[in-house]
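tool=predict chain=A
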Amino acid sequence: MNANALRRGLLYLVALFLSFQVFARDAVSIGTISWAGLPVEARKTLVLIKQGGPFPYAKDGAVFGNYEGVLPKQKRGYYHEFTVKTAGAHNRGARRIIVGGEPVASQDFYFTDDHYATFKRIKE
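tool=predict ok
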C-alpha cells in the first residue's frame, strides 16, 4: 500500500468516526415525566408560566439558547427558561422548566434538575 492510499484510508476512518459522534449527539433521547412526577415546586412554576406570572426570579422568561443541543433544534428565541425553586439553595439552584414557543399558550415543556445536562419532556 502506498503512502497516499494509507492517508486516504486514515482520513476515511477519521471522517467515519466523526460522523458517528455527530449522529450520537443528535440521537440523544429525552425522557418524559408526568405532571404528578414533578416536584411540587416544578408544578407551582408550571402554573405560574401558564398564568403569565408574576415570577419570583428576574431571569424567569429569559431566552434559553439550547447551547447544550439536548433539546430539539429550534430557531433562537423559541425556548425560554423558568426557575424551579430548590429548597436550601442560596441561589437559583439547578432546576428549571424550559418552555418552547409562547410560554402561556405552549404545550412544549421540559424539566431539568441538573442544570441542563439532561431533560425530561413534561407530559400533562
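The radius of gyration is 20 Å. The longest strand covers residues 79-83.
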